[in-house]
Amino acid sequence: MSNDENRKRFEALVMPQLNAAYNLARWLTRNDHDAEDVVHESLIRALRYIGSLRGDGARPWLLQIVRHTCYSWLKENRPAENVALDPTDGAAHDLAGPAADEPPSLAMRKAEREQINEAIAALPVAYREVLVLRELEDLSYSEIARIANIPVGTVMSRLARARGLMREALMPSVRSMLRTVARTALGGGKQ
Amino acid sequence: MNTQNETQLINAFVDDELDLTSRLDIEERMRLDAALAQKVEGLRQLREAIREGADYHAAPAALRERMARSIGPERTTPGHAPVAVAAVVRRWLGWRPLVASFGLMAALAVTLDLAWLRSVQEERLLDDVVASHVRSTLGQHLVDVASSDHHTVKPWLSSKLDFSPPVGELQLPGSVFLGGRVDYLDGHPAAALVYRQGAHVVNSFVWPTSAKDSKPEFSQERGFRTAHWSSNGMTHWVISDVNPDEFNAIVGAIRSSDGGS
Hints:
The structure holds 2 protein chains of 2 kinds. By secondary structure, chain A is an all-alpha fold. Chain A has helices at residues 2-14, 18-29, 32-48, 58-77, 106-122, 125-136, 141-148, 152-185. In chain B, 53% of the residues lie in helices and 20% in strands. A 7-stranded antiparallel β-sheet of chain B has the order 1-2-3-4-7-6-5, with helices on both faces. In chain B, a hairpin with a 2-residue loop joins strand 2 (175-185) and strand 3 (188-197).
């Protein structure tokens, strides 16, 4: 029965991508419970459309569905968020890093992690998604373009803008961390 | 505009997304232009900081379980036996031409086997319905759309499904409409309407069918009462752990809200 076959393909190709699906949904909805629901719905859709999955690109294919489902969900539940899509928008981030003095300790590292997470969460969703797909899923520009349904040129401009916003948000207090990272990761850039 | 392009170019360089010529070009320029080299280094550091600092949200175990249960019902062991039985029945049906000369006898046998086949399928469906009900009451996921307003829930469900389930008001004292959710039963998406009757949760599943209208059939499974019937092109399965009288009243109320009786 082709139903069984679909199920088998689904389990072999799609289920291994569950973490990637959840990570994207979690970053887009910024909420555990909503992310679970979005992923659940996405996977049910994925099973229905599994016939359109060809070859080995299961992750971009699934993320495309997750992203689409997230956006419908956001439109329905948080209509205010889609407004911030305009690339000229710059007013959305008043997340000024606390300019406190910097105790050089593990607690600081933790605070920095928190700050990075907060800064990503504060990005307008269009920038957030390209950044998450690039830095956390390590996807290529063309894969991101396919998932977000935008030209590669737009991926480039949004990613550049996303990083610009991140830098602005992190500027005051992350310098120390950047220095540590630079020391440990110098020359260790990705090939 | 130019600086914007430049920024994108550097980003693509750091991401290793440039063709070889442009890449060599930038490397060359970085040797000569300290400010550019510094920008690239700054971007690399930012990138490392994000990759190192940002949370990666792995799927929680509860979601995995929920998925495994709602998507792979046929993989579970109880499912296997009925499938095997169904295959045997189907194979047996393939032999029908041999016994065609027995006329009436063959017809009778086929009818019996079809009935048997149907009951096997129904049993599997019953398992699914119970599993879905238990899941909904155990987890945090009772409803996707929480609203006591039928005019909110119906369009919501219609937008998620390729059919529009009947969502009527129950004329039943003590019954509260909690909302709806999308579930997956018997190989297709189903609408689940959720009610609370006293302290008990009632799940009412609906999906399209080509079957003719039928009267409710009641059964019990692991302490839950279920009823299922078809009306107006929809299959209904209702399940709850309320007492028999209340359950009958609920089924009656759901049927009359649907216009069937």
